[in-house]
Amino acid sequence: MSETRVLIVFYSRNGSTEAMAKSIAAGAESKGAEVRLRRVRELAGPDVMATAPGWAENAARMNAEYPAPTADDAVWADGIVFGTPTRFGNVTSELKAFVDSLGGLWFQGKLVGKAGSAFTSTSTTHGGNESTILTMYNFMAHLGLIIVPLGYGDPAMFAAGTPYGASTVSGQASAPPTAQDVAVAEYQGRRVASVAGALKGAV
Fold first, then answer.
1. What are phi and psi of 139, to 5 degrees?
2. Which fold has domain 5-199?
């Protein structure tokens, strides 16, 4: 059977969600998967971005490192993992704009049967981690993805994360994910790669 392919689509402003995406990618690659990391682009203009220190600079750095996701990336993948910071307990408009662009694939049923999973980051404890991930479950169901939660299938889950998907709390100083957060994210990557591989050609 050909190599399992995992697409990780994320939005990150200060690097916390980006760090989680890279850890998920490492987990998937450890299972032999081919991974594409893609960052969705800003919707806000330069004037708005200038109101948040570091926003424009971080965006320029990440946009130089990660291509923007396309519908072709979604078709290519056997599993898709969506990542976003929380916005009032919900998905960012940047990630949602990409999802909304997949209407043609939805209509054709092109994503039905692929594995789907989600992760998030917040700047405050209990800042909407679980609700944000569950919000992403909604659009994954509409796209026909087979949702892959984490449960408590790895010891790392008893120290960090949520059963719905990996998460991290960056705080006001944009702290990097903890070692426990990284362990959960790597587990998510392994789990998605394994499930996506098992589903490939079966649905």
1. -75, -25
2. Rossmann fold (3.40.50)
